[in-house]
Write a structure and sequence with these properties.
By secondary structure, the protein is α+β, with helices and mostly antiparallel strands. 20% of the residues lie in helices and 34% in strands. Strand 10 (194-198) and strand 11 (201-209) form a beta hairpin. The longest helix is centred in the N-terminal third of the chain and has 33 residues, at 3-35.
């Protein structure tokens, strides 16, 4: 056997040993990588960020004072007053005033348009009247006739009839503690100046309060600031059914 032939197995064995050594090194490397704990990725929440600025609250609208509304209609010898819920005066009406503003104010106060009709006069002392009726409160305004007395000279240019203690929630306040539905004895307790039966006899009574305050004429003629008395008509079983503001007269 030659020297070259004897060295060949040694070379082959060296190559095999080298290959095995490399394979072992690779296996050890893979094992160490598998056993190493993985490094966790940083949480997105851990990243530094600019804090959000909370939105500013929307400013609320500045409240405005509510407009005053009618709280009651207060009657008096010289007319009536619409009083507001804040105590202010919405309208003060006197018997010689033009009724246009009063009709508008009462319509606003009661929240409804009046029913209109003609209340006939007697063809002599009393003219016809336009009746503005709010179902419990009626304003009568004289109808001027050409050739007759002008309105500012007539003794009863307007008057009031009250058939309810309130109209659409607005109280009506007559004088002398009078109220629709009050009994005859309750009316007598208020000390009327006059009491007499009406056309229906004792079943219908009329009470008159403060007859002395009626003032429609003076020595110089019709007065500018008229003053009326108060009438209360009562029926047996029903009590007072109508309260009126008109002049008192013995005629």
């Amino acid at each position: 056997m030659t020297e070259a032939s004897s060295r060949r197995p040694v070379v082959i064995l060296s190559i095999v040993a080298a290959v095995l050594l490399v394979a072992a090194a690779i296996a050890v490397f893979l094992l160490t990588q598998r056993d190493a704990a993985p490094v966790a990725a940083p949480s997105p929440s851990a990243s530094t960020s600019t804090p959000a600025i909370p939105p500013s609250p929307t400013p609320s609208a500045t409240p405005t004072d509510a407009a005053p509304v009618a709280a009651e209609v207060v009657m008096a010898a010289t007319g009536f007053t619409i009083v507001a819920d804040d105590g202010s005066t919405l309208l003060e009406f006197r018997w010689r005033d033009e009724v246009g503003p009063a009709v508008a104010a009462l319509t606003e106060a009661f929240g409804a348009e009046p029913r209109m009709s003609v209340y006939p006069g007697d063809g002599n002392h009393f003219p016809d009247y336009t009746a503005y009726d709010w179902s419990g409160f009626t304003l009568y305004d004289m109808i001027v006739v050409d050739g007759d007395k002008p309105r500012d000279e007539y003794s009863i240019p307007t008057w009031i009839g009250i058939g309810s203690n309130e109209v659409r929630g607005v109280p009506i306040e007559p004088e002398f503690g009078l109220a629709v539905g009050a009994t005859a004895d309750e009316v007598r307790a208020s000390d009327p100046d006059e009491e007499f039966p009406m056309s229906g006899g004792d079943a219908q009574l009329r009470f008159v309060f403060d007859t002395d305050r009626t003032e429609i004429h003076s020595p110089e003629g019709p007065v500018e600031d008229l003053s009326y008395s108060v009438f209360a008509d009562a029926e047996v079983g029903s009590g007072v059914v109508l309260i009126r503001y008109r002049p008192w007269s013995t005629l």
